[in-house]
Amino acid sequence: MTKAAEGEADIVIFDLEDAVAEDAKGGAREAIGAFLTGRSEAERERLWVRVNPLDGPHTADDLGAVMPVGPGGIMLPKSRGRHDVEELDRMLTALELENGIPAGTTPVIALVTEVAAAMFTTGDYVGAPRLVAMTWGAEDLADSIGALSNLGPDGQYTFTYELARSLTLLGAAAAAVPAIETIDGDFRNLEGLSARAERVRRDGYRGMLAIHPAQVPLINAAFTPGDDEIAKAREIVALFEAHPGAGTIGHQGRMLDRPHLSRARQLLAQVEA
Fold this sequence. Notes:
Elements: H1 2-5, E1 12-15, H2 25-37, H3 41-44, E2 47-50, H4 59-66, E3 73-76, H5 82-98, E4 108-111, E5 131-135, H6 139-145, H7 159-175, E6 179-181, H8 190-203, E7 207-208, H9 215-223, H10 227-242, E8 248-251, E9 254-257, H11 258-272
Parallel strand pairs: 1-2, 2-3, 3-4, 4-5, 5-6, 6-7
Antiparallel strand pairs: 8-9
Helix pairs in contact: 2-4, 8-9, 10-11
């Protein structure tokens, strides 16, 4: 936990779910609670906790152990749809009030494709309380549908998992929250990680989960707009500001229209943030 917290990740997520055996859940809660207790409020803003899924017996105990020390946010695994986020919101509100935390201030990121039924609800998260990002998972999805593997002979995700990635991206766009790419378990293949991060960023993803400290700098680099991108975005915005009534503008041998302007503004907003 110390090594992760001292690293370069924007958000550090301590896991109470898949990384912890059943008989070790209690000890893990105590360890995370003690670690968070020793951190300032500013430090805790980037220290989140992944609790266990709502259809199991552990979620209430997880939240009861970590909420008194104010984690930066909660990751909800195996979300089956908006109703799970709403149920989590009710649980968090009660614990916030009980512990002197302003109600509604603990954000949530939802893992939205880890069970088969959840694939059909990725578009239902519009306006879900507390939701600040959506991500997806391929390993638990493979388990949910009884697949032998989620990878093809070429080492790439097969159709069902690419579909999960696309549905998550579309669902996040509909909910107006960032889409976060799932992990790359092959943490030694840093070249492959960089290529994948750059590809999903082009598709619209705004970040990626890491499982090893060596992955973090490469992910940060892939998702940070370059100087050329920023300059081009500013140029597009300036062109449209100079021609406010134009729907399309010819520029350097190609036609720019309003979607180009929108994407440029989004990129500059990301840089400013």
